[in-house]
Write a structure and sequence with these properties.
Structural class: alpha/beta
Oligomer: single chain
Bound molecules: adenosine monophosphate, zinc ion
Number of helices: 17
Helix content: 40-55%
Low-confidence stretches: 443-447
Mean pLDDT: 90
C-alpha cells in the first residue's frame, strides 16, 4: 500500500497506478439509468459507488468532470435488433403517454432518489435524445471507415471485420474472434445482420415506432451503445481517463462502445474501465420477475416481507460502504440490522469526538503514534482501489480509541492537542465529505422511536387539514420548515410518509 492511487482496470484485469491524461484533471464518464421505470436499489448501489469515487478523486485535489448520461431512447428489450421494442416507447404505449412524459417522470424520480442517498450531481448529465446529431455523425464516420454496413435503412457495426483488423474487439469481455466466428456458424442468421455479434448503430423505425429522427439512411433512431460513445467524446474528448458502469454492462454495452470509438476515430475511449458488482438479496440477484426485490421506498418505510423494520437512507449508504465496489453486496435483514448498529456507533463516536476537548499538557506517546498510523491507514485503503470496507475498519479502530478516551480507559496525556484536532478533521472528512454520509440518526429512529413518529404523524395530519381548508400558507410553511430540517414528505396513494 502506498500514497499513490491504484485503480483496478477491468481492461487489463489488474490494479494499475492511476495517471491522469492531464495533470490535475480527470474526465470520468458513468453510464446512467434508462428512465423507463423507478430506479431500483441495484442502480442506487452503482451510483453510490461512483459517487464515493467522485468524492474521493475530488478530495485528492483533482478537478473532475463527471459525466453521467440519461438514456431516454434506443435501449431495446432483448437484443438490439430492429424487431425489438424500445423500453421507453413500450411503457409510453402501455400507459398511453408521450415517451417524453415517461422520461420526465422517471428522470425526476431518479434525481429525487439520488438526493435522498446524498449523491452529488454530475458535472454534466447529457441525454441521448439531445445528441442525435452527434450520433448520426459518428455512424457516418464508422461507415466511412468501412466498419459498418447498411441493410434496409438500418446500419450495423461489422464486428468480424473489426476483430480481424484489431485485437481490440473482445478485450474487455474476453471474447475472441474465434468465438464470434463459431457463433456465426452455429446460429442461424434470422436477422438482417451479417453476423450475430454485429450490432445496430442506427435502426430504421417501423411505422408504429414513436421516437424517430431523419438521417441519411432512414427515419429511425440510434442504437443504445452509440449514445455513450458520442456523448463521452463530445464532453470528455476522444480519449479520457475513467469510464464506469455496472458489471452487467461490460458486454455487450461497453465492448461495443469501445468498438464504436475505434471504428469512428481509431482511438481508445477510456484509459481505465471501472465496473461495480451486483446487488443481491438473500443470496440471489435482485429480480422483479421472481419477487426477489425490494424498492428503496419499501426499505425506508419497512413495508416489505423481506425486512423486519424500516431503515434510513443514510443507514443504507453506510451498508453499501461496508463492501468493496467490485464485490457483490448481499442485502439481508440480518446484515442491515448489523449495519445499523455500526452506523449508530460511528455517528455517536463522531458526536462524542466533536464535543471532546483536550485537558492540555499531553505529549506524543504510543497512543498518539497508533492514532496517526490508523489515520494514514484509512487513506491508504482508499488509495487501494477505493477500498471503503477496509477504510471503514480503520475508522472503527479509531472509534474504539475515541470511546476509550471518553471513558477514561485510554490516557489523554499520551496524545497531543494537535492530534485530537487532526482526528476531528479526519472523522469529518472521511464520514461526510468522502463517504457522503449524513447524520440522520433521528430520522433513522423513525420506526423505533414512537414519540418522533407520533409527532410526525401529527404534523402530517395538520398539513392535510390545512390543505383541505385551502390554507396554503400553513401547508407550505409545514413543508418548507421540514425541508429545512432535511425531512421530506411524500404523498403516496392513501397516506403521506416522511423520510
Ligand atoms: P440501467 O438503468 O438498467 O441501464 O442501469 C443503470 C446502472 O445500474 C447500470 O450501470 C447498471 O449496470 C447498474 N445496475 C443494474 N442492476 C444492478 C444491480 N442489481 N446491482 C448493481 N448495479 C446494477
Ligand atoms: Zn453507456
Amino acid at each position: 500500500m502506498s500514497n499513490q492511487l491504484v485503480i483496478h482496470n477491468s481492461l487489463s484485469r489488474e490494479k494499475e497506478v492511476f495517471k491522469p491524461l492531464h495533470e490535475g484533471n480527470i474526465g470520468m464518464y458513468v453510464c446512467g439509468p434508462t428512465v423507463y421505470s423507478d430506479v431500483h436499489l441495484g442502480n442506487c448501489r452503482t451510483f453510490v459507488s461512483f459517487d464515493i469515487i467522485y468524492r474521493y478523486l475530488t478530495h485528492l485535489g483533482y478537478k473532475v468532470r463527471y459525466v453521467r448520461n440519461i438514456t431516454d431512447v434506443g435501449h431495446l428489450e432483448g437484443d438490439a435488433d430492429s424487431n425489438a421494442e424500445d423500453k421507453i416507447a413500450k411503457k409510453a404505449r402501455l400507459e398511453q403517454l408521450e415517451p417524453m412524459e415517461i422520461v420526465q417522470r422517471y428522470m425526476n424520480g431518479f434525481h429525487d432518489m439520488m438526493k435522498i442517498f446524498n449523491t452529488l450531481p454530475p458535472s454534466i448529465e447529457p441525454r441521448a435524445t439531445g445528441h442525435i446529431v452527434e450520433q448520426i455523425e459518428m455512424v457516418q464516420q464508422i461507415l466511412d471507415n468501412g466498419l459498418a454496413y447498411i441493410k434496409n435503412g438500418s446500419v450495423y457495426f461489422d464486428t468480424i471485420k473489426f476483430a480481424e483488423q484489431s485485437e481490440k474487439y473482445g478485450e474487455l469481455s474476453g471474447r475472441k474472434l474465434e468465438d464470434l466466428l463459431v457463433e456465426t456458424r452455429d446460429l442461424k442468421n434470422q436477422s438482417e445482420k451479417n453476423h450475430p455479434s454485429d450490432f445496430a448503430i442506427w435502426i430504421k423505425a417501423s411505422p408504429e415506432h414513436l421516437m424517430r429522427w431523419n438521417s441519411p439512411w432512414s427515419v429511425g433512431f440510434p442504437g443504445w451503445h452509440l449514445e455513450c460513445s458520442a456523448m463521452s467524446t463530445k464532453y470528455l474528448g476522444t480519449n479520457f481517463d475513467i469510464h464506469g458502469g455496472g458489471s452487467d454492462l461490460k458486454f455487450p454495452h461497453h465492448e461495443n462502445e469501445i468498438a464504436q470509438n475505434y471504428g469512428s476515430c481509431n482511438c481508445a475511449p477510456a484509459n481505465y474501465w471501472l465496473h461495480t458488482n451486483m446487488l443481491l438479496m438473500n443470496g440471489r440477484k435482485m429480480s422483479k420477475s421472481d419477487g426477489n426485490t425490494i424498492t428503496p421506498q419499501q426499505l425506508f418505510t419497512g413495508d416489505s416481507e423481506h425486512i423486519s423494520k424500516a431503515y434510513s437512507p443514510m443507514m443504507l449508504r453506510f451498508f453499501m460502504l461496508q463492501s468493496h465496489y467490485r464485490s457483490t453486496l448481499d442485502l439481508t435483514d440480518d446484515a442491515l440490522l448489523a449495519a445499523e448498529k455500526g452506523y449508530k456507533r460511528l455517528m455517536e463516536a463522531n458526536n462524542i469526538l466533536h464535543a471532546m476537548s483536550h485537558p492540555g499538557g499531553g505529549s506524543a506517546g504510543a497512543l498518539d503514534k497508533e492514532i496517526h498510523t490508523l489515520m494514514s491507514g484509512a487513506f491508504e485503503e482508499m488509495n487501494d482501489d477505493f477500498n471503503t470496507p477496509k477504510a471503514l475498519a480503520k475508522l472503527f479502530e479509531l472509534v474504539t480509541k475515541v470511546n476509550g478516551l471518553k471513558a477514561g480507559h485510554l490516557p489523554f496525556n499520551e496524545i497531543t492537542e494537535d492530534t485530537l484536532a487532526q482526528l476531528k478533521t479526519l472523522f469529518h472528512t472521511l464520514i461526510f465529505n468522502i463517504f457522503g454520509l449524513k447524520d440522520d440518526l433521528q430520522v433513522a429512529n423513525a420506526a423505533g422511536n414512537g414519540k418522533l413518529d407520533g409527532l410526525m404523524q401529527l404534523i402530517i395530519e395538520l398539513r392535510a387539514t390545512a390543505r383541505a381548508n385551502k390554507d396554503w400558507t400553513t401547508s407550505d410553511k409545514i413543508r418548507d420548515t421540514l425541508k429545512e430540517l432535511d425531512i421530506q414528505l411524500k404523498d403516496e396513494k392513501n397516506k403521506t410518509i416522511w423520510i
